[in-house]
Amino acid sequence: MKMLMFDTESFWFETFSKTLDHVDDIEREESFTDSAVVFIHVEAEDEPRKNKVVKSAVANLKWYLNKVNKKRIVLHSFAHLSSSKSSPEFAVEVILAIRDKLESKGIEAHTTAFGYFSEFSIHVRGESLAKVFKEI
Length: 136
Known about the structure:
This protein is 26% helix and 40% strand. By secondary structure, it is of the alpha/beta class. 29% of the residues are buried. GO terms for molecular function: ATP binding; threonine-tRNA ligase activity; zinc ion binding.
């Protein structure tokens, strides 16, 4: 798994086009202020180690939220951080598991529309920790 974490002033997205035939047809637009936004890429080698990957991702995201003093996070599937890709079904399962575990720890967690290309706008803060890459 690869994660690119951002400390943002604002993040806006709108579904643009569906990329997976089996997902529901939706039109969705949302915006978030003062949140962490994480681009997540789930890799094929994550499939046999799901529980470890989810646990490690949650620990890293909690660390990041603490460092940037945020209580809200947006998880965005972004399959462009590696040439290795898990199945789409596994990727959404992992992202939702991460979201659920964060929520169970009292963190406000959101996901963008899975299986869609989205138009987005992101305002990332300038500090060093505002942009962090993690490989799990």
